[in-house]
Amino acid sequence: MASSSSSLRIGVVGYGHLGQYLVERILKDGAAHGLSLAFVWNRNTDKLKGLVPDELILGDLSSFAERRCHVIVEVCHPHIVKEFGLHFLSHSHFMVGSPSALSDSDLNLKLRQAAQQYGRTLYVPSGALWGGQDIQRLNDSGALKALFIRMSKHPSCFRLTGDVLSDWTEGEGRRVLFRGSVAELCPLAPNNVNTMAAAAVAAGSLGFTGVQGEIVSDTVLSDYHVVEVEVTGPNGFSVRTVRRNPAKLGAVTGSATYNSFWNSLLGESCSHSKYCIHFPEVKLHDVKTNQINCNLWCRLYRSWKKILNVFTKKTNMILHGLKLQSIQFYAFNVHK
Ligand SMILES: NC(=O)c1ccc[n+]([C@@H]2O[C@H](COP(=O)([O-])OP(=O)(O)OC[C@H]3O[C@@H](n4cnc5c(N)ncnc54)[C@H](O)[C@@H]3O)[C@@H](O)[C@H]2O)c1
């Protein structure tokens, strides 16, 4: 694929369901959105042959830097986030498709520090989480008191590290597999609770240990996954959402999540929303009025592409009369 020098070069790490979808979309529609494919890596290279142009196949992930990506998107496994996340951030912005990896507090801190050190952004796509931006706003205002997420799926859709589900039988109905903090749940079901992990990122004041979750196996759910989110604020304020995400039997990822990932990559939701991407950590210092202004930033920079272009430069820039006071290192892409 010809890539224009001005396009954002994307490296895709993982060629499972999500990776295949993203690669296909970038090859088909990327040029129209200013995106081009820099490489695709999969632990089994044979899976890529004939489907991805040879020159875009990366054989050895350790040599990713040679492909000079603007953004690396991980869509395979939290292990890869742990093994390569810091390296990725030393060269590129990094979208963590498996944010359950961030439940490791040491890794989480190191990734944030690396992003800050190298002036890169660690992106967490909203995936199957509905209302993440609202959760984040409540969190940032100091009003978020509690957050609970229940994820229910057909037993064939779970990939658990233990054998708690090894004896399931069709027709057995509903079984609560685990209830506890998201920090405890992530190692048990690293591929299944990324939505909870994204919520724990949005709810930074509660974090992975404060946000509570529950995973439920239900043989009735042969056509969709269910994500229930309960947000509690002050003085009796609460919001409860239920999201049904159509999904095939055995699929880790619900079908609506594919498009959600693509939108996270494009920042396309910006044109439909007052706020495009909310930056919890970004602080803009308006030199004239001496005010911190986050919302203005979001209005000014409505596309992720532009944001990335800006962040490839250094801090302390004057932008439209605003002085960038601190570089953000943790962004949360809005669900659409
Ligand atoms: N953020 C979210 O809301 C969200 C939603 C759905 C899926 N996910 C995550 O995104 C990732 C990809 O999802 P998917 O539906 O494409 O899954 P998938 O099972 O279809 O594909 C995963 C791919 O990664 C490879 N892989 C598995 N373990 C690996 C390892 N240890 N090292 C290297 N490669 C490995 C597999 O061979 C496969 O090619 C998963 O981690 C999944 O949990 C996140």
From TrEMBL:
InterPro entries given in the database record: Asp/hSer_DH_NAD-bd, Asp_DH, NAD(P)-bd_dom_sf
Pfam families per the UniProt record, alphabetical: Asp_DH_C, NAD_binding_3
Domain Aspartate dehydrogenase, first and last residues per copy: 173-257
Gene Ontology terms: biological process: NAD+ biosynthetic process
Highest taxon, organism lineage: Eukaryota
One Gene Ontology MF term: aspartate dehydrogenase [NAD(P)+] activity
Aspartate/homoserine dehydrogenase NAD-binding domain ranges (all copies): 14-125
Family statement drawn from the similarity comment of this UniProt entry: Belongs to the L-aspartate dehydrogenase family.
Protein name listed in UniProt: Aspartate dehydrogenase domain-containing protein
The organism's taxonomic lineage, starting at the top: Eukaryota, Metazoa, Chordata, Craniata, Vertebrata
